[in-house]
């Protein structure tokens, strides 16, 4: 991996305004992503985890500029989006695979046409685009003679997702964002797609952003993990550090909910109580303090921000780990 990040996001903010009433006036703001920063090294996989509604998918869409951030900066290869690089250029280098394999495909296009469509729109002649589509189908394990002329409804969910992966690779991107791309598949097919992704990463030198609710899959696929809570980053660090010694209480609670076959590691009490607060009116200070057993007065009074821990590239947004924060407790241990 190179020392300089391939991709970096700094201070990303995305709020969605709610409208209501007869005149459609604004009735509030959903703080979907609130000051999120992270980077990607070339060739690594960054896993993003968190409860539903924490901002994972919104962050994914900001990465590929499907939605425009209210503020913040996106840089790819040292170039800033909107200054040195256009959205069109960005999307040639960053592609996305969505959760719903069927909705991602045009029901009126064959698999050959679906993969060739993007390259043809960007100037590739039809014959070359078709040859590229056949080569990509072969690469993702689908025989072109059998699958090139089929339509989406004629394929299984796993086969459709392979086509979506092939379509994402049509521009030879540097980064592929996978937003719950295997969550709708049964376990046997999921394993096949995960193995395919690992093989493609090694073969093509890809960099992944891997979003999933399945913590075991994230552990298997990722080099680093970013934990999000209510639109913010709670913790980010190497996968082994996160899973063996989580620094943030929310991360520890999230991991304790993982099912285990070991009878000595049974969950005897709920790791968390209550639902996440309303993103329209999030709590002051640390957003997790309303559900945290370590919460103190400083947690509601002041937002902690990400603090660098001893381990390399390991950061947590928790007053427990910030020297002089005023929190009386000791560091969280598992």
Main sheet makeup: 8 strands, mixed
Show unreliable segments: none
Let me know the number of strands.
12
The rounded distance between the terminal residues' Cα atoms is 30 Å
The amount of beta strand, in percent, is: 15-25%
Helix content: 25-40%
Seen as an oligomer or otherwise, the chain set is single chain
Shape: globular
Total helical elements: 11
Q: Helices and strands, in N-to-C order? A: EEEHEEHEHHHHEHEHEEHHHEE
Question: Over all CA atoms, what is the radius of gyration?
Answer: 21 Å
Structural class: alpha/beta
Spatial sequence of strands, sheet with the most strands = 6-7-8-3-9-10-12-11
Compute the average pLDDT. Answer: 89
What's a quick, concise take on this entry?
The protein has 334 residues and is α/β, with parallel strands linked by helices. 30% of the residues lie in helices and 22% in strands.
Please characterize this protein's 3D structure.
Helix content is 30%, strand content 22%. It contains eleven helices and twelve strands. The protein has an eight-stranded mixed beta sheet, with helices on both faces. The protein has a four-stranded antiparallel beta sheet with strand order 2-1-4-5. A hairpin with a 4-residue loop joins β1 (7-20) and β2 (25-40). α3 (111-121) packs across α4, α3 packs parallel to α6 (157-168) and α4 (126-139) packs across α6. The chain is globular and about 70 Å long.
